[in-house]
Structures are given as structure tokens and as C-alpha cells.
Amino acid sequence: RTAAAPIRASGPTATRAAAAAATAAVAAARASLALLGLLMFPAMLFVLGWNENNYVCENKRILYAEANAKPVGCDANGVSGFSWFGCAVDPSSFTRLSVMDINKGVLTDNVSIPISFMGAEASQYLQMYQCIETKTTTTQTKDGKTRDVTTYSYRMGWSSSLESLTPEKVPYAKTICTDLVFAGQNPPFPVNVAPRTSSASAASFQAGTHGNSYTIPSSIFSGKLGTTPVSLAPFSASFVGAPVESAFKTVAAVASVSGPLATVTIAPPGAPPPPLAYVAPTLPPYVAPTLPPYVAPTLPLYVAPVTPATYVAPVVPAPVTLAPVPPPASLRLLRATLTSAQAAAPAAAPAAALATASVAQLFPPWTAAQFAPTMVNTRNLKVAAAGNELETCSSRVPRLGCVTLSYKVSAPAMVSVIADITARQLAPKKTPSSWGCSGSEFSEFTEGNISEGKMLAKLTSANSMMTWILRFVGILGAWMAVYCILSPITYMADKIGDVADYIPCVGGFLESFIEGVVGAVVCFISCSCSCSCSLTVMALVWVFMRPLYGAVFLLIALCCCGAAGFAAMQAKGEGETKREFRMGKGGGSSGPDYE
To answer: Could you tell me if 356 and 303 are in contact, meaning their C-beta atoms sit under 8 angstroms apart?
Structure first.
């Protein structure tokens, strides 16, 4: 016998099944939130406790430096111990840093990019012209159902990281980023330079009296120096890359048209295009102008003088249409501009030249070899006109895959340092351990001649600001964690509200009222519990580290605990009153207790 086909649920049965599945998914999500809260709550309390301990210990290290670091002069002879000085830097002590040093392990020679500069640190910034995808997600409600809608938008722009494109959206991206028609995806970065921002640091430099100066190692100054852009103009002779207007090849571009296609002015190859916007490649039809009253002119293009009796209107050629090739959206097309008509015979040769000119000639198709080289070197790089960066093609008319490289160097003129000095060599000072704090290393470095007091005051302010930021984050995170733990309660209120919604006339009001009241109560309880626990942990750390301050914190924490307990007792009392009323103790009829 043939097996019977399974009966598929339809109508009300399918609706109930879908509703049950949705309910189960929401319940699982609330349970996951509760589990997340159980993990997040102790983590936030740990962060708060560590933050308070770190604040006290860091302040102790700053106070130790204030009490023990002695000011010294710029002559390092005979200087030793924990000291502060502010001295000029010896420029001859800087190290010559090359591009190979910055791209260590990637660039293996100094010939590909022969650039170097004197300084303590140097950095390289790499960008590539790419198709950039932006995803925007919005929540929309339709027919009572909420769904997330993602919108994709695309644009051409510079980025220091490789931009990925959603594969199924690439056909749409090609309509905006027209070079993708040939490339398919954003091309990779050149393999012989490090992506994004990379840097190199000298082992040390010297500050102080020449010949008797202090040696400052990179462990003290690394990452604390300001930077200055490097001018690449002195290196321009070493780079023979593509012409500045590489996107135009060497095709002569039409710059302007005078009269009804009578004369055509051709811009020389390589000349920068005029700043004209793109217009449709089909030239408008010629309209014969209204000639002004005749005043015996001398027309330059006629051999014989013209009189009203012998004047013959010029023959206007048919409109010239450029080849229908869509131009890249990122490029500017030169437009042919018709000026006021003149009484001159049209020239057929320039018109024919215009008829055969095409957009593809002016703007060649994208190729990886021309616009996205796998390696950069002196043959495909050129110093930009501004002299501040290297480029593989013109940044004025970029194409997909074009790369720019710029450099910055750190060469301070004067520095101020707090560190331990031994035989002119600087090193971090080992601070002693204390109650609740382990021993650690201390050193401070800044550019300029800054007094010891100002340097330590800046450290104190930064320590205090970071502590307050972590306090805010920790307490807010603890609040969110407790709210997640109690989220099953709000879920139950939501289900009770769904039931109440079936009551005619007042169902919607009751649903909103129940869910709003329960949500507010849960929010208040979670705030009280999280704040009281957070302040208790912070107070206990301060009781351990600084008992006087800790006692004040502990008192505030106890007040928060009392507020949370009072709220819980009030909620319990209201519940017992309602239960007594339903059981008949409040004057009503008795009945079963469904709570």
C-alpha cells in the first residue's frame, strides 16, 4: 500500500504552533539574559574592587616620586639616583630611520622606497582607494510585527584597512563603484608595505649638555612623543611613477568648442583638466542664433569681406554624439562647451574627431596592473604635488586600488623626565611595596620643559579621571547584570499582560499598566541591589586600604541596602494584603488562591 502523505498543519493549528514557537524563543532569550547577568555581575564587582585598589596604589607611587625624585641639572657628570630634569635634546643623537625599519619583515630592501629621516620615532600611514560598504539597521513595525531592516549603501573613499563587501550585494555596488565591474572586489594591499599604521623606534637618544648628556632608552619615551609630517619633496627625483593624471593616459582631451563646432581647442597631453562637471555625452542640437543688426565687421575666418547682400547662413552639422559608454562615477569628464555662435563656416575635421572620441579613450578600463600594483616601488610611486605623500596614481582623480603612503617623524627639541639615573643611563625606578600594593616600576616622560610638580599633578589628574570612568562603567554594568537576572519576572508580567489584553474595553490599558509597573519595580530593585553591592565592594577595599574613607563608603552602601530591603518588604506587604482580600479576610467572599 502506498504510504499516506503526512498531514500538514494549517489554519488555526499552524497559527497556534507558530505562537508557541515564538513564545519558546522569547523564554529561551530571557533565560540566556539571566545566565549572562549571573556571569556579568561578579565580573563587574571584581572590576570595581580592582579599580579602587589600583587608584590607591597609583597615588602611592606618585606620592613616592614627589617625595624622593630630586631635581638635577643637564650635566650628567656625577648624577645618580631617582631624579627629575628638563633639558634640550642633542639632535646628533637621533637615529636615521628608514622605510625598511618601519616595514620590518615586510619590506626587505632600502631600494624600493629610498626614504629615511633622523628622529627618535617614525610612523607610516597607508591608505587605499576602495569601495566602502555601510550597513544601517533599523527596526520597523508593520501589522503589529517588528523586524530589523538592513540598508546597504556604497561609496568610493580612502581607507587604511581592506574593506569587505557583502557578496550578494556586489552587483548593486558595481552601479556605484564602477571600477568593480572590472575588479569584482576591492583589491588587496601591496604585499611589501605594512597595512594601516606602522612605526619604528630608535633604541635611545640623548638630552643634556653635549658630551655629558643623559641617555634616554625607548622603554621610557616610546609612544609619548609628538609627530611631525615628513616632507617628501626632496625625494621626488627618486620616484618615476605614472604621470599625475594617469587616469587620462596621454589622450588629448577636448577642452572647449568655439562657435557651432567651428574651431576646437585641444588641451596638451598631461595637462590638468579644467574643473568642469560631467554632462551627458550627447551635445544639444544647434539652434541658429538671432543675428544682431549688421555693423560691417571684419570676420577673421573669411578671406573676403562679407556684406549683407552676400551673406550666406552657415551650414550647421548634425549634433555630434559621443560613444554611449557610461563614465566612472568617481571621475570628472571634460565637457565640450558651445560658446556663442559666430558667422563662420564649420570645420568638418574637428567635428569628425569629436564623433570618434569616446569615454573609454579618455578613461581607460580598470586593470590591476595599472591601478592596483601588488608591490610598490620607485617605478610606480610618485611624490604628490603637495609633497606630503607618495601615490600610485593621482589623488585628484583616483581609481580603485590607488595607494598613498605618508610618513611622520618624532624629533623633540626638549624633554622632561622623572627616572632613575645610573652612569648617565635612565631606567624606571623600582618603588617599594606597601600595605595592599606590590612594588612596581615608575618613570614619567613628556616633551618640553615641564616642572616636576606639574608632571606629577598631571599624573594625579589622569589617575583620578580613569578611576571615575571605571566606577561609572562598573556600577552601570552591575545594574544591567542584576536587571538581566530579574528579566524572567518581566517576562511573566508580559505574559500576564497578554492574558489581560483579552478583557474587552480595558484589556489594552491593563496590559500596559501591568507591564509598566512590573518593569519599573524590577528596574528600581536592580538599581538598588547593584548600587548597594558595588558600593559595598568599593567600601571594603577602602576599609582595607584606607579605613577612614572606607567607613564613609560603607555607610553609604548600607543606606542603599536598606532602601533595597525596604522596597522588598513593601512589595511583600502588598502581596499579603491582596492574598488576604482574596481569602475573605478583607470582607470579601472566600475563594481559591491562584497565586
So the answer is: no
Q: Give the angle 186-188-189 at the CA atoms, nearest 5°.
A: 125
C-alpha separations of 171 from 167, 178, 179 in Å = 8, 10, 12
Tell me which residue has cell 544647434: 286
**Cα gap 65→464, rounded to integer Å:** 17
Cell numbers placing 459 = 599624573
pLDDT (mean) for 208-237 = 92
Kindly state the DSSP code that residue 234 receives in the 8-state scheme: G
| Residue that the C-alpha cell 489584553 belongs to | 501
Nearest of 138, 51, 121, 113 to residue 478 by alpha carbon:
51
CA angle in degrees (0–180, nearest 5) for 221-452-226: 30
Q: Is the pLDDT of residue 578 over 80?
A: no
CA separation for the pair 102, 122 (Å, rounded): 7
Query: What would the 3-class secondary structure string for 276-298 be?
Result: CCCCCCECCCCCCCCCCCCCCCC
Taking residue 257's Cβ as centre, other Cβ atoms within 10 Å add up to 21
**Residue 179 near residue 363 (C-beta atoms within 8 A):** no
Q: What is the per-residue pLDDT for 291? A: 58
Task: Please report, as a single letter, which amino acid is at residue 313.
Answer: A
Q: What is the pLDDT of residues 61-85, one digit of tens each?
A: 999 999 999 999 999 888 999 999 9
**Orientation of helix 507-545 relative to helix 487-500, angle to 10°:** 170
Residues 118 and 96: beta-carbon distance below 8 Å: yes
Instruction: Give the CA diameter of the chain.
Output: 124
Positive or negative CA dihedral for 247, 253, 254, 255?
positive
- Residue 571: phi, psi to the nearest 5? -65, -40
Q: Is 532:564 a contact under the CB 8 Å cutoff?
A: yes
Pairing between strand 70-71 and 81-88? Answer: parallel
Tally the C-alpha atoms within 13 A of residue 298's C-alpha that lie toward its C-beta. Answer: 1
Distance CA 272, CA 248 (A): 10
Model pTM? 0.65
Is the Cβ–Cβ distance between 58 and 463 less than 8 Å?
Answer: yes
Place of cell 610598490: 376
User: Which secondary structure element, helix H or strand E, spans residue 408, and what is its range?
Assistant: strand 403-410
Q: What is the amino acid identity at position 463? A: N
Query: Which residue type is seen at 230?
Result: V
